[in-house]
């Protein structure tokens, strides 16, 4: 084997190594995007449930209009939030207003026994669990991507092709519990 052939093999292996790192970074970036999409799907489901819940509660507690307005406003703000950080903050506000809505419902025994209300509560609780699972999946993928962007030698490839770190979807400590309703 002559020296030229050895140099050629080393160059080919080096190029293949760079391609593998680049493809790994692309794969991670796409998984982060997919995970964010999962969060959006669950949040959309949550947003769709809230008007039905408000309508059900309104029938029983029509004079609690300030609570309904706050929930509606928090829902609108959450739907308009863009970045994961903004979305997390808006979701915290929405969870807080939902808690006040459920607190209102406790003062109305007929409402607590209403089949529609109970079904909406169950669906909302199920959605909260799915959102929590989606957040974990998203944050796990963001961690993996951010580690690749920071670690050697993939950091060189990441900087050459302008890969950027993603923001975690974090929520406040007080808001880590799903919305609970106690009768």
Notes on the protein architecture:
- The protein is mostly helical and 183 residues long.
- The chain is 79% helix and 0% strand.
- The chain has helices at 3-60, 65-80, 84-105, 109-113, 115-150, 154-160.
- The longest helix is centred in the N-terminal third of the chain and has 58 residues, at 3-60.
- The mean pLDDT is 87.
Features:
single chain, 183 residues, mainly alpha, 6 helices, rod-shaped
Summarize this structure briefly.
With 183 residues, the protein is mainly alpha-helical. The chain contains 6 helices and no strands.
Major sheet: none
Rg from C-alpha positions? 24 Å
For the record, give the distance between the C-alpha atoms at the N and C termini, rounded to a whole number: 81 Å
The secondary-structure class comes to mainly alpha
Strand and helix order: HHHHHH
C-alpha geometry: rod-shaped
Write the layout of secondary structure elements.
Layout: H1 3-60, H2 65-80, H3 84-105, H4 109-113, H5 115-150, H6 154-160
Helix pairs in contact: 1-2, 1-5, 2-3
């Amino acid at each position: 084997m002559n020296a030229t052939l050895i140099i050629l093999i080393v160059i080919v292996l080096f190029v293949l190594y760079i391609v593998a790192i680049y493809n790994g970074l692309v794969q991670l970036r796409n998984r982060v995007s997919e995970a964010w999409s999962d969060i959006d799907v669950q949040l959309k489901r949550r947003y769709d449930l809230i008007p039905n819940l408000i309508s059900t509660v309104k029938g029983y507690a029509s004079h609690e209009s300030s609570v309904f307005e706050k929930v509606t406003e928090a829902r609108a703000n959450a739907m308009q939030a863009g970045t994961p950080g903004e979305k997390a903050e808006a979701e915290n506000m929405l969870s807080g207003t939902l808690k006040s809505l459920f607190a209102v419902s406790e003062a109305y025994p007929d409402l607590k026994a209403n089949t529609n209300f109970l079904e909406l509560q169950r669906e909302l609780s199920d959605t909260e669990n799915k959102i929590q699972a989606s957040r974990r999946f998203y944050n796990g993928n963001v961690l993996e991507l951010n580690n690749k962007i920071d670690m050697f030698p993939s950091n060189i490839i990441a900087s050459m092709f302008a890969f950027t770190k993603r923001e975690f979807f974090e929520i406040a400590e007080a808001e880590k519990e799903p919305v609970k309703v106690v009768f």
